[in-house]
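Components:
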Amino acid sequence: MTSPTAPTATSTGKKSRPVDAFLTALARSNPFSHHRVTATGAQPIDVPSIHDAEFRTLISLAERVCDQDEAVGVVVWGESGSGKSNLLRRLAEWAADGRAVSVNFLELQAAPDRLHRAVLTAVVSALTNGFAPPWHRTPLYLLLEGLIRPALPVGKQKLSPADLGRVFRDQMTGPVAAAGATPVVRSTVELLLRFLTAALAEKSRRADGSPADAIMRRLSGDALDEEEAKAVGARGADAVNPLDAADSTRVLALLAQVARLNRRPLILCFDQINSLPRQQIADVSRLLHELNDRLRNTLLVLSEVRIELVNLTETGVISQATWDRLAANKVEMPRLTVPEGRRILEARLEQFLTHFEGEEEVKRHYTEDPLFPLGEAWFANRFSASVDVRPRRMIDAARERWDELQKSLDAAPDKGKWLEHWPNFSRVDLPVKTSEQLIDEQVEKAIGGRVARHAAAPNGLPPNADNLCGLVESLLAAGGFGLAVGRPKRGSPYDLLVRSPKSGGGETTAGLVFLATGSSNSITSALGRLAGDAKRPDRVILVTDQRLPLAFGRAAKAQGRNHYAALEATAGFEHAELPFAEYAALEVLDTVGRQESDLEISPPGGTSRPLKRDEVIASYRRTGRFTKHPLLGRFVGVTPPTATTLTDVEVRTFVGGQVALTVGTDTHELARQFLNGLPADRRAGLDTAACRSRIEAVAKTMAEAGDITMTRLGDGYFLLPKRRPAAG
Amino acid sequence: MPKVNAIAVLADNLVTDLATSRASSTDYPICLDRLSTRLLPRPDQEALLKAVANKKFTSRAIVAVKGRADAPVALREHLSELAASPLTLEVALRVKGEQGAPPWLPKQLAGAVHKDLKAGFLKAINERVERGDLPAFAVAVSKGKTVVLYHRDRPPPPPPPSPSVQDAERLVDLIRRRCRPGEPAPLITVAALETEAGLTPAAFKKAAKEPTFAEAVTQVKVKPNDVLVTPNGTGDEFGRFVTGPLLTRLLAGCARTSAHAFPTKELVGQLADKGRQQQVASQLNRHDLASELPTGVGCVLLSDGKAGGQNVFFSLEHLRAVRSAASPSAESTPRVTDDFATAFDAAFARIDRERGSNNFVSLVNLRSALPSVSRETFDAGLQQLRRERRYVLTSDERYDGLTPEQQAAAIREEGEFLLHVSRGRP
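Structure:
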């Protein structure tokens, strides 16, 4: 919510009346301008009685998983704008009060084989305040200390190192048995003990807790160098490779059990996966399935728009077995009754008016009319015929009403008398906004909200090269700058290849490498492969996370440093070290673009409608969000001037060929492949959106002719080859 | 003048008093705090514990458990006596009890006493166990080939109930919470209970078999697949359940346009179990039912030849409709709505079940399932159900992806196509 603006001196120099402060605030702020959840706990006004039953259901499930030591799936579903994200925010607030370990998993673009590790990294990040000391103030330390405390002899505050180790291992017997006494679980117990020892030493200022950094990296699944492994008491051979999916899950299971000994469940939230590419949705849903089967003391929450989830299950993208697990519990987010919705407005108005309690004229108005300044009459007129309402719709209506009030106040010849005439004021027609302006406003709000969310909870997005690569790939492919974006073949030193058209003809190829590891071995190896690449593309871009600077090893002449120096001396080499804010910006642009149906506009004279992804991406282009980004801007600086003409014949040939090769594919994927397959001069000026609409138009004629089958998706179509009787 | 060490003096005094106690032979070994009451002035606990840690004391005497004022104490020459003392066993049980849950092996108890006493203590316990002359406060229980002990006043906690028993208790609790004192138990289906309890089908099945659940409720199977549950009580709760919610349910199950009144025999025919049919029929055929009938339901006694008679039940709506048949306009709307609600409920339940029980049914399917209901009646009836929060309509987000058929079936409201129906929150 926008807080009321403080009164300022008027330019006329007249003595300001008390009511002027209210009018100034009314004119400059709008308590209904934000309806989306902006951060974990950052939505300042909540009405706890709304969706209280749904909230209590989630809490009781969380308590149940802890009591019964089981993993339980729950689907939170409803329409867009029905309050799903707000419910998850409440859950996170409840958890943050020491009742649970809650993680909102955001790294949905990670590759399938690394999703498990990404979840582990997210959990460890949450448990260590984003891998940041002081370690003795991290939730993980408190959990581990919680294991030791009951075993302290009466009157004793600390244990000798030997006793600490004995007690800790005793306490971990149960968790180890529950997680499976595999080598990785046993070595994780030792890592946790080392961490506890380091944090205790840091707490008593006997040491700086430095080994904890490497311990946490290993705990989160990252590889360690042999020296680091020795320093944290692990066998070098055991720690030099990152954890695979199975081991990552085992470590997660162990951490969930540690949380359980502290009477806390682990809560993993996945918010809206429907707009990911279909293969990625299938992979994420399989991840949820596996976590459900292999973890205990864990509540897996999937929040989704109901129609989308039903479609995903009916079309088989989410398998029946997975669905049975995820939807073992369903929390429906029903529409609100009008009186319930009214309470949202009242709560926001109450907070706005609190600042003006001493002003008699304002007080008289809100005493007489509880919805002042919106007005009871406006409310009755607007909602008397409604049976029920979505929270977002009600807030939007109030925001529009507030906009009207602002305009009429602005147009009033004597602003001092505006309040005397309220609610009878002359309506001022608001300037008609174009659809583009409305879209840009919505996108701006959504982006602002999500940026605030990351600012409030930076631990939610730990360094993850894989996710970073996925985000960049997704955004560049969708950006509409004529780029051909693809993953190279296995064995290539690059993670991503981007071909962009040159203004004078031909194209430039850039190879991108993403590194976010503290292991100097891994870095040296990656840089070595780059330096030794004989077929180097025109540009080589090394992308790293500022929170994990390149670690070359201790030696001044470490091999990694030599490779890096050699690359720096090479033409076309660039190093983009992204600060957290820029990594977060990529996640924001991708997520807002994917959750487009959550954004709605009411065009002039038309009806309210959700946005499409293409519209959101077009807004990004209009408002320069690609060009302003330090990494994306390197590829999209120049927009090709004219678009190429595509013929129906070439599109038909392509679609027919691709559909015949597969068991079915969606038009988003086809558009990406089509664009990537065009020569650079023909790709100029084209984007995936344009290709997709052309492909869909041609596919419709093919479907009508009976050549293929076409199924409507949330955004786009799924194309299937027509089954023909076998010859003979 | 040399400085006097008060703790050392206290240690000396304690040893002297201990020797005196031994000489009197009445109260030995003695608990440390009891020994301290003999000193004047009586030392505070901190000083007492410091004194027994002092060399002057430790060289001549021993406390059974370090740092405990409630532990027995004896002179070093009487170690075996102290080890075998019931007081030592009692303090060992107490110390272990403060650290964890009973019972314990003798070896574990020995871990609590002074190291010099361990061997003697263990030997003494084993002998006492063998002879069966443990002090009254100590209880021994066989555990495999060995024996474990606990204090009579602090027995081991009962084993936690199994998850299925806990689930069963929760189910019973859920049912009881829905009951209001003085009113018949509401109609609860096993399917609804399973959904509300949030259990997996397997867990629910297990819980339902537990005596905790099975003995606390009566289950009534209604054809084809419904199972109703009602809590057992001390009074005639089952009778009130039969003449209240169950009767309403059975009456609705018989509803058809060609008949408005149904005899007991036909009503109980919907029950799957013969024994239950007889039990329910005996309740429904009582002649003094009038005051117990649910609102809106009437009954008359129908002749059944020489065998007596049986009650016939009907909805009062239908009775009134017959009387006012000459002027139907005033009564027609509510009747249509009630019929519509029943038909709508049935259609919704069927389609939802067919589509995976997601509580999410398209109006296209619902309208097709009720072809004889006009659009006007359908929309008005649905609007009424929405106002009662029995059903909720939701929009289809794919506003441009709706087929003409979907657009035609949807209800247009504030620019949205409300296409999907869900059961509302009660």
